[in-house]
Every structure is written in structure tokens, then in C-alpha cells.
Amino acid sequence: MIKRYLLHLLIIVSLTVGAEAQNANQRYTDYIQRWKDVAISEQSQHGIPASITLAQGLLESAAGASRLAVEGNNHFGIKCHNDWQGDTMLRDDDAPNECFRVYDSAEESFADHSRFLLRRRYESLFELPVDDYKGWAHGLKRCGYATDPNYAHRLISIIERYSLYNYDTTDGRQADDDALFILEHLRTSHAICKTRSLHYVIANPGDTYSDIAREFSFDLDELLSINDVIKDSEIKAWQEVYLQEKHDDAPSDLKSIVIGEGETMHSVAQRLGIKLNRLRELNPSKKDKPGTRLRLHK
User: Fold this and answer.
1) Which domains, and CATH codes, for the chain?
2) Cβ count within 10 A of residue 11
3) Burial class, 68, CB count within 10 angstroms (exposed 0-12 / middle 13-18 / buried 19+)
4) Contact in structure between 164 and 51 (CB atoms under 8 Å)
5) Which of 50, 96, 132, 175 has the most neighbouring CB atoms within 10 Å?
6) In contact, 76 and 56? CB cutoff 8 Å
């Protein structure tokens, strides 16, 4: 009865979800299917929620498609630090040509991610229940895992989009895993987040600005203008889409920032909630390419 219901549900969903969005999601669901058992095993051994491990892997590696993941088997963006004795590769991140760890296999990357979180810096996270994915997401940001001010909201959006919290059970497994990959398509709405008094949503893979405009009964031209976009297009997965005018200034605690691999000046402006023309005014002669350090204040 349940399987028949789920099959009927899948048929209905397939008729309501656009083909582009389905294709965009396929890479992410494939990644989850490939690595869920590894994440569950790490949870069993070390107490790190499988949902957090999967969400970080999806985000940091672009679902396994980033250069760091493809060439270095590094799925979590872990840098070399002083204690790393293995192979390395350089990549533009918080600074140009930063040193990142290289692994012999992706499985080794997952294991090292767990070891990395077992350091004293993150010990407060292990006081949280294994099913408190929101607490873990905000805790990772608070403990300094990433400099991205919206890192926690990105992780939470991924976890809720793909129902990854279902893996944070006693044994991390569901009786019918196929149900997860059917039900995740039902998560088409976007939770409203807030940063620096600005309201925004996180774009799902395959989203367009017209999708967001329809959901929030927004004028499309106004939404495009707020987000410094000329015409409707597919939005970069997990990027901010603001629902109100962005600030003229960047966060006061940041003096400069580097355009990271896979980023542009526009994606940096979205990440910081600053108007793109203001960022350009501050950096009139800077090239819009990874590795460029941008000035954020006069």
C-alpha cells in the first residue's frame, strides 16, 4: 500500500516539477545515494549527524563536481593546516592560492572530515543531539568552519530540501530509502532567512528568478533589480536571492575578500548582501575573476 502510494505520488510530482529542475537535482540526489552509507557510518563511529556530513559534502564539493573534489578527492574544503603531511593542491578561497588537502580517495576525505571535527575547536557541537541539524549547522559557523556569513542557512536549506534529517536516526537508515528521493521533490518552498536585517531565500538547484517571484508574489523586474540581475535566468544553486534592497556597505568586520573558485563579483555581492554597483565602485580596476582580492570599504 505504501509503495503504491509513493509511486502515485512520484507520478504526480513528475508532472508538476519542471524538467530543468529535475535535471539540476539529479546530480545532488545521485551524490546522496552514493555517499549516504559512508555518512551514516561516520555518524555511527563519531556522532556527527549524517545530514550534516552530506550537506557539507554537497555544498563544499558542488555535489562532487568541484575541481578540488575531482582532482583532489577533497569533498569538504579542508585546508592543509600545520598538521597535514599528505599531498596538496592550491585553490583560490579566502586568499589566492590557498593550500588544500589531497586524498587518495573520497572515502578518505569523509574519514578525515570526521577527524577534523573531533578537534577541540568543535567539541561543543558534540553536546548537541545527533538529530539537531540546525544546532550543528549554526555551531559549525560559530566555531569557524567557514567564513561565509550564511553558511548555516545554506546547510539547513540543503538538509531540508533533500530530507537528509531522515538519516539522523538511531541507525541512520530508513526501511525504504526510495521514499526519501521521492519526498524530497515536495520541498519546493523556500524558507525566509535573515542576515544583517535583510530577508532572503536560498535558491534550490534549477530555480529561476521567475520561480522565486511567483512563490512570493513578487514583481519579477523588481526582484531582478534587487539582486543586480538584468534578465531572468537559472540561479546558481544555494545562492542568496534577496527580497529587499541590499546594503551599500559590506559587513564592518570584513576589510577585503577574495573571489573564490567558481565565484564572480556578483556572487560575492550576494554572499555579503552588498549592492553590486557599490562593490564595483570600490574596485574600479579589479578583474572579475577568481583570485582577485576585493576592497570592501573606503
Assistant:
1) 2-186 (1.10.530.10), 193-295 (no CATH)
2) 9
3) buried
4) yes
5) 50
6) yes
